[in-house]
Specification:
It is a multi-pass membrane protein. Pathway: Carotenoid biosynthesis. By secondary structure, the chain is mainly alpha-helical. The chain has one domain. The chain contains 10 helices and 4 strands; from the N terminus they run ααααβαααααββαβ. The strands form 2 sheets. A two-stranded antiparallel ribbon has the order 1-4. The protein has a two-stranded antiparallel sheet with strand order 2-3. Strand 2 and strand 3 form a beta hairpin.
Length: 231
């Protein structure tokens, strides 16, 4: 049964995506851009975590699996849209290509700092990959916040939501697949601290990834919200 646990677990994340995606057409581009980027990063880096952080069983026993891509896609796309969806926020019309050309420095911070940091940390220290991944997110996240402080409320809201969302997700996941945390996660390689039966590193990583995804599009394109009563 554990062979299907990863893909079924990933599918538990999908209802929220479809609710936001179909109810808010104006958020679709942001969600898809973040989702595709998140999926590609998750797929490309998956093998770094195998054996060191966790050892999941995938459908086809691949180091880089389709489950990794779907997971990254859903988490990052949902994180990108959840603030605007719940608080009914709408932003002004944008021209992505013009905005990207005008904000090339922001593009470099957003798309290059995190992967470069992760690669360097993996090469030159002995920390578990999950900690290297966290550091690689925290640093650019701090830079983004310093440059555009107006994004702080989005970060806080999304971080809190994703934290609670992750707890809910894993409570259900653990009921469906009892004992899977002990079987898949290499708890001896990390702190071993569990919250509601969930590795604390997992909760922190989910939260940081959600926070980063929530402001990526808005930071690069310098998005400004407008007041509206439309849903």
């Amino acid at each position: 049964m554990q062979r299907y646990a990863y893909v079924l677990g990933v599918l538990l994340l999908s209802p929220l995506f479809f609710v936001i995606f179909f109810r808010r057409k104006d958020l679709r581009v942001e969600m898809l851009v973040n989702g595709i980027l998140g999926g590609l990063v998750a797929f490309a880096t998956a093998q770094h975590f195998l054996g060191k952080y966790w050892s999941p069983i995938t459908l086809f026993n691949l180091n880089n699996s389709i489950e990794d891509f779907i997971f990254g896609f859903l988490l990052c796309s949902e994180s990108a849209g959840i603030y605007s969806f719940i608080l009914r926020k709408h932003y002004e019309n944008i021209h992505p290509w013009n905005a990207i050309k005008a904000n090339i420095f922001k593009v470099l911070i957003t798309f290059l700092v995190t992967p470069i940091l992760f690669i360097l940390l993996e090469q030159f220290n002995k920390l578990n990959p999950i900690y290297n991944s966290m550091i690689s997110i925290i640093i650019p996240l701090g830079i983004i916040t310093l440059i555009k402080r107006s994004l702080l409320k989005i970060l806080v809201f999304t971080g809190l939501f994703i934290f609670l969302y992750t707890i809910t997700f894993y409570l259900i996941f653990n009921i469906l697949f009892s004992g899977i945390i002990a079987d898949w996660w290499n708890l001896n390689n990390i702190s071993g601290i569990l919250l509601f039966g969930i590795p604390i590193e997992e909760l922190i990583w989910f939260t940081l990834t959600g926070m980063f995804s929530s402001v990526l599009f808005k930071f690069v394109l310098d998005i400004k919200y407008i007041e509206t009563k439309n849903i």
